[in-house]
Task: inverse folding
């Protein structure tokens, strides 16, 4: 499936399901943009506490090892509960705030006032 995704020349929607247990998983909606080699990821609105850290790290590992992207841009809804501690965790992990006007921001977000964006650069 990954080979099929990587063959596209245009942005491709991907739902990445990361399992915590056999019956519990978190679905991460994302778009892989081969033009700038960035994976854009929407933070799920409901993230079970037991799934948050492990699945997020697995997501970053998948982006780096399987998709071989240069960066991951995370989109976080402004109304997300407990976003303060989430932002602190993202900064500790190496994410940086990303302006909506940045060329690396998702397209058509210059007027987006409902989301925050963070970028994680993957080093070679």
Result:
């Amino acid at each position: 499936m990954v080979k099929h995704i990587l063959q596209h020349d245009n942005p491709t929607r991907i739902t990445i399901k990361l399992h915590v247990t056999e019956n519990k998983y978190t679905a991460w909606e994302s778009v892989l943009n081969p033009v700038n080699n960035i994976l854009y990821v929407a933070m799920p609105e409901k993230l079970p506490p037991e799934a948050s850290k492990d699945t997020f790290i697995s997501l970053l590992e998948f982006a780096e090892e399987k998709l071989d992207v240069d960066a991951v841009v995370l989109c976080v809804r402004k109304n997300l509960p407990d976003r303060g501690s989430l932002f602190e965790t993202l900064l500790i992990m190496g994410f940086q705030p990303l302006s909506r006007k940045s060329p690396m921001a998702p397209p058509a977000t210059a007027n987006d006032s409902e989301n925050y964006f963070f970028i994680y650069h993957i080093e070679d």
